[in-house]
Design goal:
With 412 residues, the chain is an alpha/beta fold. The chain contains 15 helices and 15 strands. The radius of gyration is 21 Å and the shape is globular.
Length: 412
């Protein structure tokens, strides 16, 4: 099986392509953040093509017009055990990003999600006197709130000390910072915007989506369970096919290796790169997926299904202890609507039998699809900015102009 090989870090990241001080630097660590930041970059550059934007991020941001300094989306880790096992790599990465900022001094930085590293970078820039709140001239913005409503709520006070502004995706999150002086704005979820093309769409006779995630180690744990569930399901639905959306290597290598070991069902499963559905959505009749951004995406697309999650036992035990009874769900759609939009099968309950049964119900029970459509409409209404609210691009543009952080002509 392919291993999660971390990329070699260069001794220094490349300088800005355009002369002069960069207007804006994005720091993103995962595919979901790459998508979100790319949407913001596209809108900013459409209004002001002269903006100089660099990014530690992914291919979506490069396609949107940013200079990609280093691809951060091929190795991101989640969970205590996964991070600790690669701690020396992340320390070197942290140091070299900080070195780049010291040397090239972007006018503003938009840290997007990825709180494990981004909050530390924000604190370091403030302690070194580089950020505005630390006495310097680099504006610090954070896009996508850490899940302080679930755990580590003290982070809000650390963010208050370093950030100029925070843009949150979900309306309830602004209240989480009510006891701070941090400038917080609900900017809506760009995936719910009317002009956003979701990567999936519901179609009754389409393939089933099997989505094990975008990080190598979780994929190696979850995909075998999905394959066993698919085998059971196909015994009664031999005409069905499945599609697995993947981010490329190294995840692709893991998927291919596991399919070779399950040759009896491999012919009914297609591996499709996520990049290919950026403009032409993947049709899907149902979905089995790991918890994450795709659970929100699939709910907005109205695709019925279920969530499974199977973490390293130590990570699970620590997470359960830290989170306690603060949240009832892992899936974002479930959290937002406070109900089982997607039934969640976690750890020992994430069995092939349970998943295959739920998948069959998605085809046999018409009420599931009707409920899914209701949930979809409610989520769209909740996640779109209301009249008078700013979307993420407008929030960032306004913040830049207000602090003279943008290039000349920004916002004009």
């Amino acid at each position: 099986m392919a291993k999660n090989k971390l990329p070699a870090l260069p001794s220094a990241f490349p300088p800005p392509e355009k002369s002069g001080r960069p207007d804006l630097l994005f720091v993103v660590g995962e595919h979901s953040g790459d998508e979100l930041a790319a949407s913001v970059i596209s809108r900013l550059l459409a209004k002001n093509p002269a903006l100089k934007i660099a990014a530690f991020g992914g291919n979506d941001m490069r396609a949107a017009g940013a200079q990609l300094l280093f691809n951060m989306t091929t190795f991101s880790a989640v969970g205590f055990v996964e991070v600790v096992s690669n701690i020396s790599f992340y320390k070197r990465l942290f140091t070299r990003i900080l070195d780049w900022v010291r040397k090239y001094r972007p006018r503003a930085i938009c840290f997007t999600d990825f709180p494990g590293m981004n909050l530390r970078l924000e604190t370091a820039l403030t302690k070194e006197g580089l950020s505005r709140k630390g006495g310097g001239d680099i504006a610090l913005y954070h896009y996508v709130s850490p899940q302080i409503w679930a755990w580590k709520s003290y982070r809000r006070f650390e963010m208050e000390k370093s950030l100029d502004s925070l843009g949150v995706l979900f309306p309830f999150e602004t209240k989480c910072y009510a006891d701070t002086k941090l400038d917080v704005h609900f900017v809506g979820d760009p995936f719910a915007e009317p002009d956003h093309i979701l990567p999936v769409r519901y179609e009754a006779n389409a393939p089933v989506l099997l989505l094990p995630g975008s990080r190598p180690k979780p994929v190696a744990r979850i995909f075998p369970i999905l394959l066993d569930a698919w085998r059971i399901f196909c015994k009664a639905h031999s005409d069905k096919r499945a599609v697995v959306l993947h981010p490329g290597e190294p995840v692709l290598g893991i998927l291919e290796s596991l399919l070779k070991k399950n040759s009896d069902i491999a012919g009914s499963i297609s591996l499709v790169p996520v990049d290919s559905v950026a403009t032409e959505p993947q049709p899907a009749s149902a979905v089995l997926m790991s918890s994450g951004t795709m659970s929100r995406t699939c709910s907005l697309a109205g695709v019925p299904g279920a969530i499974l999650y199977c973490a390293n036992p130590i990570t699970w035990a620590l997470g359960s202890h830290w989170v306690g009874n603060r949240v009832r769900y892992l899936g974002m759609a479930n959290l937002l609507l406070d109900r089982d939009v997607y039934p969640e099968f976690l750890q020992k309950d994430a069995t092939p039998e349970n998943l295959a049964k739920r998948l069959s119900q998605c085809f046999d029970d018409p009420q599931i699809l009707a409920t899914m459509r209701r949930d979809r409409d409610e989520l769209f209404a909740m996640l779109r900015p209301k009249p008078g609210d700013m979307d993420a691009a407008r929030w960032l543009e306004t913040a830049l102009v207000a602090g003279n952080g943008g290039s000349r002509g920004a916002g004009k």
